[in-house]
Design brief:
The complex is a heterodimer of chains A (102) and B (482). By secondary structure, chain A is mainly α. In chain A, 36% of the residues lie in helices and 4% in strands. Chain A has helices at residues 9-18, 25-41, 43-46, 77-82, and strands spanning 87-88, 91-92. Chain B has an eleven-stranded mixed β-sheet with strand order 1-3-2-4-6-5-10-11-9-7-8, sandwiched between helices. In chain B, strand 2 (74-78), helix 4 (105-112) and strand 3 (116-121) form a beta-alpha-beta unit. In chain B, helix 8 (272-287) crosses helix 15. Chain B is globular and about 70 Å long. Classes of the chains: A mainly alpha (102), B alpha/beta (482).
């Protein structure tokens, strides 16, 4: 982005929180410099005027892929649950999600 | 290194009952035992399961049944391909202890063709890297010089084939992760057209770019493996609904009358010895009857920047699934959000964290237009540039990597310098096109150099015909003592 402010430590901290990553101060310092360098390199494309060029999200366009509506075996439930860190009553068990009830 | 025997020859001998699959396997397992402590190509060797599979092939042969095109051929799998009941780590702590509940389609197809899976190979964590140093289990070493990297991210598979641990292996290529390590290790590595090989059971990095392909010691072996693993798979919705590839029959057709374009942008910023070998490969194409011309596709210069926005953006989404809930590592905490964060912070290495953050940033409010969307428009420009070149040329030729194998540690503290290793391979992924790296002599330091051929989407036949010509020229050059 032409003239965009350089990536800051606060930007990286914000992005890390969005991505559910907890960074140490040293990591935050290191990553800020490294990511800013990559984004500086990307300035070569951010500056281009490509407003008339359509985006390509996928090189080999394939759309609306459907399969026959027939029953086929799925993964074995017990085998899937055996891979989970914590299970209860055939379900994935996680720590509490909401705050304590008032 | 043991004398390479091609997968072709091995399968023929096993099918004819001249050699037992179990004996073939024994020889390769002995090579792994003797050499892999130093190379560290493998995260896991599944010797017992491999012996059982080899005995089953021998029984089929004895019973007069067809044991398949790859009967008794040992194969190594990059450790991002799911193997039912067998650990699949992506060389990451976050998949610690995970045993997938299903096989990747490529694994099923290899087994059905009689191949013997001998193990899972080391890689850069989640395929993010160009040196196989970003592994939670330590680096892989280049069999040609163990102070050097094997390239990456499929460095373990490349090293396994280069060291003679297996005749063939599978890797995945998102920005060059098959071709670059193939070049640095001195083996053949092919990235097929996007959609020709199923990604079902390939742990996703950047879904619009990832493609599985073979490593081999010969172009014919790479073609053989491609035929076995290729073809439509209803389990992968991006798999192209076309007949299975048939490429072996064209390998000796030559390139008389073809036009080979030497891609001038790929010669910029590349070491002089690599440029010299690329020009020699071009001369070999001319000697084989092709018209050779230099061609410019200026758009490919933008590939690196576009890739390092698109791939991280897709990765940041794909890797959201590692949350400590359904599989792999969990680091406990008082609530689920804190558990997610603690798990991801402990489970991912530095490069994976960098890419996730880069991708999250490129997709975040206020920056998506300038970065991610702009990169997708550049992707269109690159495809247009290639299309223009392919109106004149049948294939394009360039180096695979800017240099021979670099020293372990040389680039690991500077991500941007590492990313530049992929500058000649990335544009093919952005375009979805096939490309192949063929060993072509050595550099000033005596280490292997790979030259790269590129072709339009689904033109694997043309690509492999030209690859066979370059391989023959390399062999006769090596026979003359360079």
């Amino acid at each position: 982005m032409a003239g965009a402010p350089r990536l800051t430590r606060d930007d990286v901290a914000h992005v890390a929180a969005l991505a559910r990553l907890d960074l140490t101060d040293e990591e935050l310092e290191l990553f800020t410099g490294q990511l800013a360098e990559v984004l500086d390199h990307a300035a070569d494309i951010a500056q281009l005027d490509l407003t008339d060029v359509p985006p390509t999200a996928h090189a080999m366009a394939v759309t609306n892929v459907l399969r026959p509506d027939t029953l086929t075996p799925t993964l074995d439930r017990d085998e899937v649950l055996a891979a989970a860190p914590s299970v209860e009553d055939h379900r994935f068990r996680v720590p509490r999600i909401l705050g304590e009830a008032p | 290194m043991t004398a390479p025997r091609s997968a072709f020859d091995l399968a023929a001998a096993v099918r004819a009952g001249e050699t037992r699959a179990l004996d073939v396997l024994g020889g390769y397992l002995a090579a792994i035992d003797a050499g892999d402590a130093e190379i560290h190509a493998f995260n896991l060797v599944t010797a017992d399961a491999a012996r059982d599979a080899a005995m089953a092939i021998d029984q089929k042969v004895a019973a007069g049944e067809d044991p398949g095109l790859l009967a008794g051929v040992p194969v190594a799998l990059k450790d991002n391909m799911c193997t039912r009941g067998v650990p699949t780590t992506c060389s990451s702590r976050i998949l610690d202890g995970w045993h997938p509940p299903y096989d990747a389609t490529v694994v099923t197809r290899l087994r059905e063709a009689g191949a013997i899976v001998v193990g899972k190979t080391n890689m850069d964590e989640f395929a993010m890297g160009s040196s196989t140093e970003n592994s939670a289990f330590g680096p892989t070493r280049n069999p040609n010089d163990t102070s050097r990297v094997p390239g990456g991210s499929s460095g373990g598979s490349a090293a396994a084939v280069a060291a003679g641990f297996t005749p063939v292996a599978l890797g995945s290529d998102t920005g060059g992760s098959i071709r670059q390590p193939a070049a640095l290790c001195g083996v053949v590595g092919m990235k097929p057209t996007y959609g020709t090989v199923s990604r079902y059971g390939l742990v996703a990095f950047a879904s619009s770019l990832d493609q599985i392909g073979p490593f081999a010691t010969t172009v014919a072996d790479a073609a053989l493996v491609f035929e076995v693993i290729g073809g439509h798979d209803p389990a992968d919705s991006t798999s192209l609904d076309r007949p299975a590839p048939r490429v072996l029959s064209v390998l000796d057709e030559g390139i008389q009358g073809m036009t080979v374009g030497v891609l001038s942008e790929y010669l910029d910023g590349v070491d002089a010895d690599v440029v010299a070998r690329t020009r020699q490969a071009a001369e070999a194409c001319a000697a084989a009857g092709a018209r050779v011309e230099e061609i410019s596709v200026p758009e490919v210069r933008l590939g690196l920047s576009a890739y390092y926005l698109i791939a991280p953006a897709e990765a940041s989404s794909n890797l959201a699934r590692y949350d400590g809930v359904r599989f792999g590592l969990r680091v406990d905490a008082e609530d689920t959000t804190a558990m997610n964060t603690a798990t991801r912070s402990a489970g991912f290495g530095a490069e994976v964290k960098r890419r996730i953050m880069l991708g999250t940033y490129a997709l975040s409010a206020g920056y998506k237009d300038a970065y991610y969307d702009q990169a997708l428009r550049v992707r269109t420009k690159i495809i247009e540039g290639f299309d223009r070149a392919y109106r004149r040329c049948d294939v394009l030729l360039g180096p695979t990597a800017p240099s021979t194998a670099f020293s372990i540690g040389a680039k690991s503290s500077n991500p941007m310098s590492m990313y530049l290793s992929d500058v000649c391979t990335i544009p093919s992924n952005l375009a979805g096109h096939p490309a192949i790296s063929i060993p072509f002599g050595t550099g000033d330091d005596g280490l292997p150099i790979g030259v790269q051929l590129l072709a339009p989407a689904l033109a694997e036949n043309t690509l492999l015909r030209a690859a066979a010509v370059i391989e023959a020229a390399a062999n006769s050059m090596n026979g003359r003592g360079r």
